[in-house]
Specification:
- With 502 residues, the protein is α+β, with helices and mostly antiparallel strands.
- The chain contains 17 helices and 17 strands.
- Helix 3 runs parallel beside helix 5 and helix 15 crosses helix 17.
- The longest helix has 21 residues.
- 41% of the residues are buried.
Length: 502
């Protein structure tokens, strides 16, 4: 029985020139000599084919994020943290993207959520000369890349709306190189810049908005160094709504008299799935990979995380949060708010089990893994500073594997009266997770409190102006994520492409 199918398409030429053709190679060499192919090498190193017919936006973005070496802070497959289309799901469900594609505004949201710097322009807000200047600057550097949103029809190609990164520019011929992520359909090709502008200067029927282009670059400081918001669970929508909509109303309606009251108002109504929304990032590796030694990169990364944990716990807000959680409230109320707090041994055992599943080639459910024993060892970092390395033995089915976790630890000074079993504050836990989340709330959250002096006191506590640079960047990234998620909830992402006001 015959099966219908398509094998690629003939590239309409003119107007396009196949990159691999004799003419296309000549254009490449001339552009290379003129210095306008600098971004090409990073992009071509991570060039990918969209895995679904409607995934052109997701493929373009993941390709650019990987080219910029942005760490997603979450695993792709095995132990590897790597951007893949399947991970870009915080602003639009993948099922919906698979069926209908993604809008220019939502793709911009995804880029923000992924931790990139993004400048997005619709053609009605830009001009062809400005676009040309951006192309010239971008192709002379590999520090940022351009993703174009255009209508294929104006290029005489089949299909409608499409996304692809731009890989180079030939100034004399005024042509740009489109690295088409639909490689099953068309190869990379050169196209006149004026024609591409016309193809971008069209209206997306789904949103009623013009298409355009976005410049994507890397943040100076890697986001999500220790803390990240997780959109993998269905809980994110309810927690995000509570933090961005309900909390300001609660603070306005309640009789808030002091800082402790304000923290109580926020905490006592936290959704039960709050701990699924904000997490701390643990790094896992096989024990046999390097024995007890750490690479210089691992030492530096762990030292940064420890410094960040220290900075969180030295904020004035942390002291109030710690006091609130240690107050007269019963353990059951605290557990209801934040979930049960576990010891370092319990936490690392759970992480070891999760890590074993990620590192295993088997598809056994995580419940089949059991970590029988963990052991905390100290290794020497820069300047002889001790760094914490937790080892664990995990059994899953017939297999057994040894794992190690790099745990950021803040070492406390002990006294003769100290409890040697008290590890509170030594590793990331509910106290600092809650502190960081409160710091990440927009400043206007607190403006509804009726006592002006109290508003000023709280703003002084949560202002990023008073934070060390490392913590400031972490908090601003979390705040950026919160604002972007709120835009997505309110379906405002196509009307507002600007970076979130922080």
């Amino acid at each position: 029985m015959a099966m219908a199918g398509l094998y690629r398409r003939s590239l309409p030429s003119p107007p396009a020139i196949d990159f691999s053709s004799t003419e296309g190679k000549g254009i490449f060499l001339e552009a290379l000599q003129n210095g306008t192919m600098e971004g090409f090498y990073k992009l071509i190193s991570y060039f990918q084919t969209q895995s679904e017919p409607a995934y052109c936006g997701l493929a373009s973005l993941s390709m650019v994020l990987n080219a910029l070496a942005i760490d997603p802070g979450r695993t792709w497959k095995g132990p590897w943290r790597w951007f893949d289309e399947s991970m870009l799901d915080c602003c639009e469900p993948l099922e919906k993207v698979r069926a209908k594609g993604i809008s220019f505004g939502k793709l911009t949201c995804l880029a923000h959520c992924a931790g990139a710097n993004v400048q997005a322009f619709r053609t009605k807000e830009s001009s062809i000369s400005e676009f040309r200047n951006q192309i010239k600057a971008c192709t002379k550097s590999d520090d940022y890349h351009i993703v174009s949103s255009y209508h294929r029809g104006l290029l005489k190609q089949t299909g409608t709306g499409h996304f692809s990164p731009l890989g180079g520019y030939h100034a004399e011929r005024d042509m740009v190189l489109i690295l088409d992520v639909a490689r099953f359909k068309y190869p990379p090709h050169w196209i006149p810049l004026t024609l591409l502008w016309d193809a971008m200067d069209t209206v997306d029927a789904a949103t009623g908005e013009h298409r355009g282009y976005m410049l994507i670059s890397r943040q100076q400081q890697q986001p999500s160094l220790l803390y990240t918001l997780s959109c993998k669970h269905d809980s994110w929508a309810s927690v995000s709504k509570y933090l961005m909509e309900d909390v300001p109303l609660l603070l306005k309606s309640e009789n808030v008299k002091d800082i402790e009251d304000a923290i109580s108002v926020v905490c006592m109504s936290l959704p039960s799935n709050f701990r699924d929304f904000i997490k701390w990032v643990a790094e896992v590796r096989r024990r046999e990979d390097d024995g007890q030694s750490l690479s210089q990169e691992e030492i530096q990364r762990l030292a940064l995380k420890e410094e960040l944990l220290k900075q969180v716990q030295e904020t004035g807000l942390y002291k109030y949060v710690n006091k609130f959680l240690s107050s007269a409230y019963s353990c059951s109320k605290k557990a209801a708010m934040l979930g049960d707090e576990h010891s370092l041994s319990d936490v690392t055992a759970a992480v070891c089990c999760e890590g074993a599943k990620l590192l295993s080639s088997q598809s056994e459910p995580s419940g089949n893994y059991c970590c029988k024993k963990t052991c905390l060892k100290l290794v020497r970092g820069d300047g002889g500073k001790p760094l914490a390395l937790v080892s664990g033995s995990v059994k899953g089915g017939e297999s057994k594997q040894g794992l190690q976790i790099l745990v950021p630890v803040k070492y406390k000074e002990t006294s003769c009266c100290s409890d040697p079993n008290d590890c509170s504050g030594m590793y990331p836990a509910a106290n600092d997770l809650l502190t960081v989340l409160l710091l990440a709330l927009p400043l206007k959250t607190w403006s509804g409190i009726k006592i002006d002096r109290l508003v000023q006191d709280i703003r002084s506590l949560v202002s990023t102006d008073n934070l060390p640079d490392l913590l400031k960047e972490e908090v601003l990234h979390l705040r950026r994520q919160l604002i972007i998620l709120k835009r997505c909830q309110d379906n405002e992402e196509d009307g507002d492409l600007s970076a979130p006001p922080l």
